[in-house]
Amino acid sequence: TVTLMTQYMVTRPLYSEDAFADVHEKIHRHHKTVRHHVKQYFTCDLKRAKNAALSLLPFIGWMRIYQLKEWLLSDIVSGVSTGLVAVLQGLAYSLLASLPPWYGLFTAFFPVIVYFFLGTSRHISVGAFPVLSLMVGAVVTRLVPDEGPPVNITGFEGLTSDEQRVMVAASVTFLMGIMQLTMGLLQVGFIVMYLSDTLVSGFTTAAAVHILVSQLKFVLGLVVPGLSGPLSIVYTLEKIFVQIEKTNVCDLVTSILIMVVVFIVKEINDRYKAKLPVPIPIEVIMTVIACGVSYAFNFRVNYKVDVVGRIPVGYESPMGPNMQIFGQTAVEAFPMAIVGFAVAFSVAKVYSVKHDYIIDGNQELIAFGASNIIGAAFKSFAASTALSRSAVQESTGGKTQIAGLLSALIVMVVTLAIGFLLEPLPKSVLGAVVIVNLKGMLMQIREVPYLWRRDRPDCVVWVVTCLASILLGLDLGLAVGLGIELLTVVFRAQFPRCSVLANITGTDIYKDRKDYMSIYEPEGVKIFRIPSPIFFANIDFFRGKLVEAVGFNPLRVLRKRNKALRMIRKLLKKGELQMTSVSSGVNWNSELPANIHVPRVDVHSLILDFSAVSFLDISALKGLKAALKELIRVEVEVYIVACDAYILKKLHSCMFFDDEVKSSMFFLTLHDAMLHILEKHPVNSENTKVCEKV
């Protein structure tokens, strides 16, 4: 079969930038001043007030389009299913935060209520997130350790160890909420863009390892103090293995049984999710069974199993944050604020794309900030979203945050009425549920071979972030990962892959000369492309690569020529050499008299492709001008093509042009410059096949 290719032919004049500007008049655009922007920002009318209200209270928007008959039943089913999972995960993730289990129920209630009014996502389930819970736990155990006295903080007097821990968790959550709310009000939701998918993947994998290790003491039934700081994971493992012979067999068997059953049923849920009306709530089922068995056989007394124990009925009185704890935890609160928002926003973005609606990053920051502030006042700890819980809310048919509101009501019923039924639940069951839910995060390690083959700098970011987070702790690990990520961006921009281009025979297309066989390179012409901005950090690299491309150092050639010229004039003065005139010019590529040698320059024209150059700073302008002058002074004509209009404007405003470096060297396209060169320096060759000017 013969494939017919679409062809096109364009007949137009050859354009330099100056010629194009002369022929085509530009529209003068009026740029608004800062004063105008400020005035417009603070101007208020009815329309802006309405939009502001809808933006601040997004639930009004979707409540107005709520389809009662089609959506309500789905939201009820989803809300009940999510509520049951939220109860279980709230209890389990409290252990990660080193708090009494029932405080997880507060986290599954208060933030959900606030997010209902302020959040823009209709599908995420707000509440405890294991990584955040672990970060809270690290702060809690640092200020109120299991062994030894707590840090000297005003307000700890007369409080039990658990009450002190609750105060620390609530205060750091309050501070985290203030940070998120402030970032939202300042419209800096874009900050999450600095956390790449690779960095988040490596970080959450490390967090999964920390969570796994932290739950081993519950699975094995051991008493291991909570540790925080660099190498805490190593010390924790050491303490576990030192007393491994004290393992509670009942806890271990129960945990293994729970993990195996939950894992198998979850795999069935994944494989047959298209056929199942709702996923089987296996964690809830196994928890109910474990509660019943533990109560029937009195695990706590007969087998020395550590159980959830007394769950107080109702909610506790609100309390204000401790300002002294703010000062002690500010460094940890900021990464918690970023991680909590980044995870929630990435999950919300997935569901917004799937269900075709818009989420607002800044409003999400405001929603989570307010959720954490109000939640902390009622003694809940850091809230974000858990992927598994959000998946339950969405997969069971949840359409809006009505499902989230109903899940909070389920949690409230447990807190106010039936919490006592969970008192015999072994903590090892909660630990097993947490561990089995780590599968998704732990399996992210499979990305490493793929990244190594496809993008090694990204692979380095993943590995370094993961290892640093495991060994140094999640807060320091995140900082190290972010630093490495920014370094890779700098290195990519500082050392870009420059290339020499050539014409694809018979076309107006130019590609890397190393990649194609059928190319045309006119003698004496070089085309150099730099695929990045040019700035202070890479201007020297750019000039070095340019010297490699043309095959000579123009400054060295210029010095040699000046030295040769002085020798020729000296010989003329002595009468040892006869020439009509030196000032008329010397053909430096011909044989010079008196065995005078200078480096040969075979390039008469150089084209710089600026199509990928997005900006130039002042250092780059100076370096570029110096490089151009060096080339011009050794009789190389330089042309710059496809330059961004903003850069051209900046060159004019910075007085870039003079008697040597002229604006006439700028051409609209690479092919325009090539045709201009061929017209100026005709090439006599029968093999020349290039799209010519008509």
What would you say this structure looks like, in words?
- InterPro entries: SLC26A/SulP_dom, SLC26A/SulP_fam, STAS_dom, STAS_dom_sf.
- It is found in: Membrane.
- Helix 12 (about 250-270) packs antiparallel against helix 13 (about 280-295) and helix 21 (about 445-455) packs antiparallel against helix 22 (about 455-470).
- The chain has helices at about 15-25, 35-40, 45-55, 60-65, 70-95, 105, 110-120, 130-145, 160-185, 195-220, 230-240, 250-270, 280-295, 300, 325-355, 360-375, 385-395, 400-420, 425-435, 440, 445-455, 455-470, 475-495, 540-550, 555-575, 620-635, 645-655, 670-680; strands at about 125, 385, 500-505, 510, 520, 525-530, 605-610, 635-640, 665.
- The chain contains 28 helices and 9 strands.
- Strands 3, 4, 5, 6, 7, 8 and 9 form a 7-stranded mixed sheet that branches. It has a two-stranded antiparallel ribbon with strand order 1-2.
- The chain is mainly α and about 700 residues long.
Structure, briefly:
The chain is mainly alpha-helical. Helices cover 57% and strands 5% of the residues. The longest helix has 33 residues, at 323-355.
SSE layout:
Blueprint: H1 17-23, H2 34-42, H3 46-56, H4 59-64, H5 68-96, H6 103-107, H7 110-118, E1 126-127, H8 130-143, H9 161-185, H10 197-220, H11 232-242, H12 249-271, H13 282-297, H14 299-302, H15 323-355, H16 361-377, E2 384-385, H17 387-395, H18 402-418, H19 427-436, H20 439-442, H21 447-454, H22 456-472, H23 474-494, E3 499-504, E4 510-512, E5 519-520, E6 525-529, H24 539-550, H25 554-574, E7 605-609, H26 618-633, E8 637-641, H27 645-653, E9 666-667, H28 670-680
Parallel strand pairs: 6-7, 7-8, 8-9
Antiparallel strand pairs: 1-2, 3-4, 3-5, 3-6
